[in-house]
Write a structure and sequence with these properties.
The protein is an all-alpha fold and about 120 residues long. Helices cover about 70% and strands about 0% of the residues. The protein has four helices and no strands. The longest helix has about 40 residues, at about 70-110. The chain starts with 7 loop residues before the first helix and ends in a 10-residue tail after the last helix.
Length: about 120
């Protein structure tokens, strides 16, 4: 049995994108690359925009609490708080985008997703 060593990004994507299980192991990295090139749909764009607005609103209100300290320190603190929030908010949008791209690729190539009872 041949052991295939996949890049970390492919191994992580396999966890969040069950669609990859239907793609041959050697083709998965290329499939991920191609799936990420699919244009964003309106739901993904609106979700990303709303998420960024939410993070801006949350950090803006946090700035009032930090108002008594030095401006540079307050700005750095807000950036350190905002970075993981933006990551969390956008991760869901990007995973949805990637999964939709994989489904579109599978449909274009004639592959079908396995049913839930096959898993």
């Amino acid at each position: 049995m041949e052991v295939v060593h996949l890049p970390a990004k492919v191994r992580i994507a396999e966890r969040v994108c069950p669609e990859l299980r239907d793609i041959p192991v050697g083709d998965r990295e290329r499939a991920l690359h191609d799936a990420s090139g699919v244009p964003f749909d309106i739901a993904e764009l609106v979700g990303a925009a709303l998420g960024l607005v939410l993070v801006a609103w949350l950090t803006h209100h946090g700035a009032h609490v930090l108002g008594s300290i030095d401006r540079a320190l307050a700005g750095t603190t807000i950036a350190l708080i905002a970075a993981p929030l933006v990551t969390l908010v956008l991760a869901g949008v990007l995973v949805r985008h990637l999964r939709r791209g994989l489904r579109e690729q599978m449909a274009a190539s004639g592959r079908t997703e396995r049913g839930d009872d096959d898993r």
